[in-house]
UniProtKB/TrEMBL annotation:
GO terms for MF: single-stranded DNA binding
Gene expressing this chain: Radx
Record Pfam families: RADX
Name of the featured protein: RADX protein
Amino acid sequence: SKLISLGQLETTWRSRVRFRPLLVRVMHKSRLRYYGKPEKKMDMPYQAYFEVADGSGMMSMVLWNSLCPEWYNSINVGTVLLLEQYAVKDSYPFKTQPTPRDSQMKRFATIEISLNVRDPPTKISIISEEMVKPEWGLPEVKYHFVTRTELDGLPNNHSCDVIGLVTFVGRVERTRKKEDGEDFWLYRWAHAIDGTSDQPFILEIFATSQPDVFEHIHPMTYLVCTQMRVVRDLSENPSHTIYLTTSNESQIFITGWHKGQPYTKDTKVKNFIQWTRTQSEANQMRKTVIGGYYPFPRPPNNFLKY
């Protein structure tokens, strides 16, 4: 009875000085962002976005500075949070938006919840899943898993989730964030099969804020990638150059990390697990490859085009 909903918060926030507690479920999680600059003296210039929802809709929540190292790894997709003494601000217009998996859910895009170590000092409590009551009306996390056969019909920049058995993983490569800059993105290529096609998923996986997962992608692991974007080279043969790349809200999971994740209830995930039980491990092992240079998309056949 002492809570406020996200819908009520949006309509009344300007007339309030203090806000009643919020009870929300995390629907999406962005990578951790470092915004430090040499001339600015800040102890912990970190920021992370989350999309949180209750029965009234979904809103952005921002974790700032020293709260990031303290809470980032504990707050995951599906986590239920009780938030007290938070701030509310006009939303930042240029941030990336995850693709919502529930088209019925209302989105409150004008404001965002701001969690700071002071002004005011936010109190964050994680509610364990066993304690969550149905009458709270918190939405379930939804996914949009696609099979390899369905991928060929998806348009460029479409967002989807995939699961597959890793058959190839390349070495870690890097690319400049800006042409003349000294910062780099780390990424690696991977192939994963799901039994629905002779073709694998071709995945360009950037190092997000999950180094312990990124560094341990190996052949024969069950790989889940969420919020992936379809990339098509429309100028060449589209079916030959389709691949998936990570977005700002992508999460990756490998064998050993799946337990308790919300996607384990998904029908397509269950179908994939059934398929893997029909496969011979030794047979699949013979087809796997690790490391090496992987030029993709392939360069043109003649040098003039290149």
